[in-house]
Amino acid sequence: MKTLFKLRILQSLWTPTSPSRLFHKDNRRLVSQIVSHYESINRCEQELPEHFNFASDVLDKWSQLEKDGKRPAIAAFWWINDKGDEVRWSFEELGFLTRKAANVLSDPCGLQRGDRVIVILPRIPEWWILNVACIRTGIVFIPGTSQLTAKDIFYRLQASKAKCIITNDTLAPAVDSVLPDCQFLKTKLIVSEGSRDGWLNFQELLKVAPADHNCVKTKSQDPMLVYFTSGSTGPPKMAEHSHSSYGIGFTVSGRYWLNLTPSDIFWNTSDTGWAKSACSSVFSPWSSGSCVFIHNMPQFEPTTIANTLSRYPITTFCTAPTAYCMLVQHGVTSYKFMSLRHCVTGGEPLNPEVMEQWKTQTGLDIYEGYGQTETVTICANVKGMKIKPGSMGKASPPYDVQVVDDQGDILPRGEEGNIAIQIKPTRPFCLFSRYLDNPEKTASTEHGNFYITGDRGIMDEEGYFWFVGRSDDIINSSGYRIGPFEVESALIQHPAVAESAVVSSPDPIRGE
């Protein structure tokens, strides 16, 4: 972290320091042409451009608006931790750092457009720098959660054929333990204030990297991002997304579900290894020109969450239903959330009782949304809609969402079936491209004219969707998708275990 603080001083770039300047009510109605343009693509009012790159077409344009005085004087990125450390960057500073990082990836690391890089880092600023740097260079970014074991890392390295892995001191030993069997891996980059044999040091390379970098002209449908997503009958699958699917697809989510403008400071608590982080900690807020706020907490504590919401001018907040449950059980009536105006959730069903208690204790509604690693936001409750507690809301553009039977035929409203997205005659651009190296599994998600989500639900007469359950055995605990196969495979390795089977059990806090 010390390196990043030094870089901020050396840049001599402005960053607001007075909390009183961070929220500008006069700018609440500011809607940029950036947002309007990409929203119109989501609504199928304009064609998808041939070329698109989130770094050059969105972030750099917000940087220019910032320089021209057409964006409120708030940070683009604001990071804190429990030790009192703090980092704040403007879009201009973000551009400066990510161009330097892009040069690190291209030169010392020897990576080229289309190469795959696994990044396993906690909620530290370098994760955001490297994410955008990969986008700038056309390198495919593969996030991983810090909870991965050596076996998990080995599988991901082999399956993805990643040429580089980036991690910290905590997980570097696990990488080294499996390195002899990873024939595709060429470069190891460590985010650390110290050195490690066989690893390039990101901080040291970033200090000396040139700041000039020409963003690669990526096509809209070029691969940008790969997420490993759990399966019920096998190892995790690799869901590939294009530059446009997440980069443009989350524009509507940012403006409507998250209700963001350039005046907002948005805090999402998701772990960096999960797709919810891409949605709510990168693409949705930054497409809206909002500030991404991050509190790097070692573990979830209701008191810490409540204190942070009270102490900082956070206007919009996103966390898992489990977290809201813990917060209302802890009790937040004694806290003053002076700036907070909009709350959202997703990842698992929200108990209506929790929603009601949150409203009683804070005066704020919770707007539930629904999506998958393979999609952007499928449906959501948004401002101006009647909230039906327990409902996931209505379909979000550009998706045509239906409930279908096992043959792919649309069911009457009120009947339970498979939640599905229409993909014919035109496949939505904001749907994943494929499961890498698994054409059979990719094909199995399509029935007739629809992509089948694997979730069961009901659409009522007013077009609201209600979640019933998974059609497979995936376990959803605190918003984390856990494949039984992975747990069973770990158990069976013990010499005392002959066979294993894993099923979920209800939990009043975590769901399963």
From TrEMBL:
<keyword id="KW-0479">Metal-binding</keyword>
<dbReference type="GO" id="GO:0031956">
    <property type="term" value="F:medium-chain fatty acid-CoA ligase activity"/>
</dbReference>
<feature type="domain" description="AMP-dependent synthetase/ligase">
    <location>
        <begin position="66"/>
        <end position="422"/>
    </location>
</feature>
<keyword id="KW-0276">Fatty acid metabolism</keyword>
<dbReference type="InterPro" id="IPR042099">
    <property type="entry name" value="ANL_N_sf"/>
</dbReference>
<dbReference type="GO" id="GO:0006633">
    <property type="term" value="P:fatty acid biosynthetic process"/>
</dbReference>
<keyword id="KW-0436">Ligase</keyword>
<dbReference type="InterPro" id="IPR051087">
    <property type="entry name" value="Mitochondrial_ACSM"/>
</dbReference>
<keyword id="KW-0809">Transit peptide</keyword>
<keyword id="KW-0496">Mitochondrion</keyword>
<dbReference type="InterPro" id="IPR025110">
    <property type="entry name" value="AMP-bd_C"/>
</dbReference>
<feature type="domain" description="AMP-binding enzyme C-terminal">
    <location>
        <begin position="486"/>
        <end position="512"/>
    </location>
</feature>
<dbReference type="InterPro" id="IPR000873">
    <property type="entry name" value="AMP-dep_synth/lig_dom"/>
</dbReference>
<dbReference type="GO" id="GO:0005524">
    <property type="term" value="F:ATP binding"/>
</dbReference>
<keyword id="KW-0547">Nucleotide-binding</keyword>
<dbReference type="GO" id="GO:0046872">
    <property type="term" value="F:metal ion binding"/>
</dbReference>
<protein>
    <recommendedName>
        <fullName>medium-chain acyl-CoA ligase</fullName>
        <ecNumber>6.2.1.2</ecNumber>
    </recommendedName>
</protein>
<keyword id="KW-0443">Lipid metabolism</keyword>
<dbReference type="GO" id="GO:0006637">
    <property type="term" value="P:acyl-CoA metabolic process"/>
</dbReference>
<dbReference type="GO" id="GO:0004321">
    <property type="term" value="F:fatty-acyl-CoA synthase activity"/>
</dbReference>
<keyword id="KW-0460">Magnesium</keyword>
<comment type="similarity">
    <text>Belongs to the ATP-dependent AMP-binding enzyme family.</text>
</comment>
<dbReference type="GO" id="GO:0005759">
    <property type="term" value="C:mitochondrial matrix"/>
</dbReference>
<dbReference type="Pfam" id="PF00501">
    <property type="entry name" value="AMP-binding"/>
</dbReference>
<keyword id="KW-0067">ATP-binding</keyword>
<dbReference type="InterPro" id="IPR020845">
    <property type="entry name" value="AMP-binding_CS"/>
</dbReference>
<dbReference type="InterPro" id="IPR045851">
    <property type="entry name" value="AMP-bd_C_sf"/>
</dbReference>
<dbReference type="Pfam" id="PF13193">
    <property type="entry name" value="AMP-binding_C"/>
</dbReference>
